[in-house]
Design a protein that fits this description.
With about 425 residues, the protein is an alpha+beta fold. It has 5 helices and 21 strands. The protein has 3 domains: about 220 residues, Beta Barrel (Elongation Factor Tu (Ef-tu), domain 3); about 55 residues, Beta Barrel (OB fold (Dihydrolipoamide Acetyltransferase, E2P)), CATH 2.40.50; about 80 residues, Helix Hairpins (Orthogonal Bundle), CATH 1.10.287.470.
Length: about 425
Amino acid sequence: MLIRPSARGLCVAAALAAVTVLCGCGQRAATLPSGDFRPEVTVVTLKAQRVTLTRELPGRTTAYLVADVRPQVSGIVERRLFTEGSLVHAGQVLYEIDDSLYRAQYDNAKAALQKAKANEVAAHLAAQRAAELIKIDAISAQDNESAVSAEGQAVADVAAARAALDSAAVNLAYARITAPITGRIGRSSVTAGALVTADQSTALATIQQLDPIYVDVNQSSADWLALKQEIDSGRIQSTGAGTPATIVLENGAIYPHRGTLQFTDVTVDPTTGNFLLRVLVPNPDGLLLPGMYVRAVIDEGVLPRGVLAPQEGIQHDPRGNATALVVDAAGKVEERQVDINRAVGNRWLIDSGLAAGDRLIVSGVQKVQPGMGVRAIEASVQAAGAPAQPEAAPQSEAPARSEAPAQSDAPAHASAAPSDASR
């Protein structure tokens, strides 16, 4: 038999349950702590450090020495005595030209010299006899003068014949075309049997010395003027002559040998506004070839007290202006306008707007606004895995900053890529 509870009993039970729930909620609310409800943000304390300023410039490799091999006499090429693409040494014979004509000219000049020498001897003896005869008035003075003159002409003829012989010897030697420098020789433009001439415009081959090798890069004159003004003002210390340079290959790999800056051109190209910088780079393995596209990272100078800010702590408005949020001594958020110089790894090199000792907000930016009180937590503490320790509530005195350095003490290297946007 079912017993139906009365409506009055149900109402009493429901009332007792509601009272119990309300009492329990009241007890829990009474036990909640009245803590600090300011939003937490992660900050990095900026510090001044030594920064090496570098600039990455595009360029191409150029041979250290280049020599076109050209014939200096005309004739038929009899033999080619080198392998294309091989290393040749200065003085090595590369081509042989048919020298029969030049050898005949040499022999003719040699015979002419011997004839001139014989005439000189006869003229000398005649002059001696005339000198003896004039003493006893056996000949006239005119005959004596003629004998002396003939001797002088004979001497001159010998000198002319000797010069002709030397010229013929030179032409004969030119029939053997030798390498003017040591280096790699390229493709030959002629083969055996080809006719070459002394005044032809086409080179027989080209020799290039590739160790060391030049890297020619271009820098904007505007960037150079800005750097010079910074150096003249004393803000940047110049690296001076022999500035080192790191070469980045076309595939992004770092070339193992560092180069040195050799010279800066004194003329600016009016069409591009750039001027040439030449870097001398060792190339013992022959990895760099003429015409290759590379990038040179050149040291521009040293900034003794540069301020580097993490990139995640810098925001940009729709107009491209850089801003940053920092926590001031009272624990409140302050907005700063920032001037950025260039990127240094994953940080920005700051020109103005931030200084050493500023606590830059790098995380939690979306939760705060300028003027809002926050709890600042050093990024270095969280990175070490330690529990976040909020700062004490702001008092009449400024809260002490974290003693743990927020950034590395090692010198930084600031690199400006060729595609740097204007500040």
